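Objective 1b: paired records.
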Amino acid sequence: MNIQLRPKEALSAQAAKSRVAKYDWVEISEDLSSQGCAVIERLLSQDECRQVATLYPQEEHFRSHVHMARHGFGKGEYRYFKYPLPELLSSLRTALYPRLAVIANEWNVRMNIDRRYPAQHADFLKECHAGGQTRPTPLLLQYVPGDFNCLHQDLYGDLAFPLQVAILLSEPGKDFTGGEFVLTEQRPRMQSRVEVVQLRQGDAVAFAVHNRPVKGTKGTYRVNLRHGVSRVRTGMRHTVGIIFHDAK
């Protein structure tokens, strides 16, 4: 059955901007800065989650299909969306970016990185495309029992946005069990720290893709982060990933 995101069900750019603005971005920024991740509760409704998940078998929406085991990424599969993105995802990508760009720029100041990100996503994409990074990176992931995603970083070119968002589309305990989102942080001269993020259907997690600044006794230093998904025990788990830079 071919189910489309009909215009009346889609999320317009203005509606997405209004929805995103309702969250406490001071608290989100503090969580990201202190933990490397922050939960954005109920970013999508139950119906919106189902609408996005049903796109998975519809090949016309995607530019590529990846089986993780073939590449040593874990076990499971995902599809990269092609342009134009579904309006719901495109609108959220555009609305979330400015909020996260403020955090990304503040982090770069703290880490003595010269790079500054433009205020609007369209301008950032122009920079990506000028650098030869023209392929869209939002993706839809599907896991069944035994599947997992190895710890990794989503870096697709020289120009990579340091924050990313993943939205859980399935309902834990009903649609699947297991499959927790996991974030690890490698600290200099210390053992790694693990964060297991509990999400409900429609919840999003914003997280650091590569590094985040940490204040130490001798100033600010960088810690390295990776993210993944633990083994799914039962059922089927769908997640959509919103990555803000395009790929080569």
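Objective 1b, second protein:
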Amino acid sequence: MAYVKSSSPLPLPAHHSKDCMSAATKRYKYMRRMFKFNQMDFEFALWQLVYLFIAPQKVYRNFQYRKQTKSQFARDDPAFLVLLSFWLFFTSIGFAIVLDLTFFRFVIFLLYVIFVDCIGAGLLIATIFWYISNKYFRQSTDQDVEWAYTFDVHLNAFFPPLTILHFCLLFFYTGLIGDHSKFLIIGNTLWLIAACYYIYITFLGFSSLRFLQHTQVILLSLPIVIFIYIFTLITQFNITRALHRFYVLRVLP
């Protein structure tokens, strides 16, 4: 298989070869490397995290490169997942401090964030997009969308909202859960930005697959999100305060 030069400014993965492996072999290799940090390309994964903020479209150029070299779009290196898990843990500590949680409640909060907000929601969203993309977006039956790739798209789209809502938002949290209208606008706007990031990066993930069509349908959710944002400002509905109450109720014994 011939190599195609990538135009992305991201560094190329450290581990790549021309050999094509079966799906079962790829899954086994991925799981086997999950706890072997010396075999992970953390530099490449860190570059992806950075570019998901400043130029997410360039991240998917490297997914195209992976398809050309390894016959799969999905990641074969768990380094990105490890860094995302670490960042999720770190931001959850910040939330626990702001919410003044005990250690026991922090553990409950962390388990909810990891297994419900990230993984649970990700499994559901990935499965829905996997079904829709293969059922309605494919131009032919010669290729199909890998479920693992749809989950990777979710993880990509999840990182910017996680940083905005679980890190940046913490610096204004005391004011955001109050009654001041200025902070309400700031908080709700951060939620709008996070939602737009998630939708746009998800769109990029599927539009980058050349055998799919009509992926722009995903962007139709943007006007809905903007309408909800305007509605919250008109009704003075504080999204951050509602989330605060939800988080507190979730960790109560």
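Confidence is low (pLDDT under 50) at residues 1-6, 14-20. The chain has ten helices and no strands.
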